[in-house]
Amino acid sequence: MSDFLFGIHPVREALGGGRRRPLELFLLRDARSPRLEEVRLAAEQAGVPVRLRDKRDLDHLAGLPHHQGVVLRVEPFPYAPLDEILARWRSSGRPALLLLLDGITDPHNFGAILRSADAAGCQGVIVPRDRSCPVTAVVEKAAAGALAYLPICQVTNLSRTLEELKSAGLWIYGLAGEAAAEPLYATSLAGDLALVVGSEGGGLRPGVRRHCDHLLAIPMLGGVASLNASVAAALALFEVARQRNVAPP
User: Fold this and answer.
1) Backbone angles phi, psi at 53, to 5 degrees
2) Nearby residues of 134 by Cβ (< 8 Å), 6 or more positions away
3) What residue segments make up the domains of the chain, in order of their start?
4) What is the CATH number of domain 3-74?
5) How far apart are CA 237 and CA 112, in angstroms?
6) What pTM, to 2 d.p., does this model score?
7) Which residues pair with 27 in a beta bridge?
8) Which letter does DSSP use for residue 146 in this model?
9) What is the pLDDT of residues 39-81, one digit of tens each?
């Protein structure tokens, strides 16, 4: 089996040594673009065969017409085991910051969250195998190269994984909207922790919520009751980063 990536930036990242081994590059026939020429040269340097195709063929491979004239066939995405993510944290010399996603099904949201997670210094992202968006070409394009650096783990049972993380010494913080939750900006987030973000519509599932040590709420000052999942995740992740990078008085 293999997958297809599309778009200049995701393909260039993959050719430069991403997590998936590139197998075959398809370029738009008769295209005259310096960016496509750079991609072609990168493929040749990496020993990846280059095929010229009509736009209709590229549309079919990518599954949509917005591929910028480049499609790359790659090996399936290699999900990381939980032990690898924990080892990455322990060897980093930094406090743990792991992200768990409970039911994120929109690929654009998923990709945007991964981009924020990498930028905020997250050591790994954990998702359930069911009721969750897998890593697809759309996700990789939205992640804008973050998947070359950020390990993703698929687990069968998210609640059981939360208990494993607790046993490893992490505190579990779930993003929630109810009034009883602790205000995000008034909570100390400097220690080893895992952040749990719920689905776009339903938030955290009750079974997952029960395994959180603390629930966090983002202050909402306007008339809107909730935020997009990727926006909420970014705010929480960068609040952790901010607290850990504030100089002592």
Assistant:
1) -135, 155
2) 77
3) 3-74, 82-245
4) 3.30.1330.30
5) 13
6) 0.83
7) 52, 70
8) G
9) 999 999 999 999 999 999 999 998 888 899 999 999 988 999 9
